[in-house]
Amino acid sequence: MAKPPGDSLVVNRILAALPHKEFRRILTHLEPVSLNARDIIHEPYKPIDYVYFPESGVVSKVASTEDGACVEVGMTGREGMTGLCLFLGVRRTSPFKAIVQVPGKAKRLKAILFDAEVERNAAWTGILLDYTHAVLSVSSQLAQPIA
Hints:
By secondary structure, this protein is of the alpha+beta class. It contains 4 helices and 7 strands. The strands form 2 sheets. Strands 2-6-4-5 form a 4-stranded antiparallel β-sheet, with no helix packed on it. The chain starts with 12 loop residues before the first helix and ends in a 5-residue tail after the last helix.
């Protein structure tokens, strides 16, 4: 039997926030995966096959410059998910690469199943709107004026 969200076995904060019924519905579709350092989770502008819900470790969003240098523009840990653009109706990744910076564990869900769950119930929508707001708030704080 599935442990209810909020239980100590549900480590990812988005999954833990789901109502028990919604969590149980996706439980058999959540695939446990290892996140190894330097694994590429999403390539820039590619279709998204899976969304990832980290339980430990850190996935960084990295921008590449024309000369090949890289800069981190965001990161995701157990508070969030990768592939958030699917929730916003965008089927391809952003111009950033998602790379594992700190190894750990995650649950992944096929993008098509994630889409169906988001369409099926408002619980996902509320949770993901809150998460989107948090991501945008942090991103806006990173912006610095050019002197």
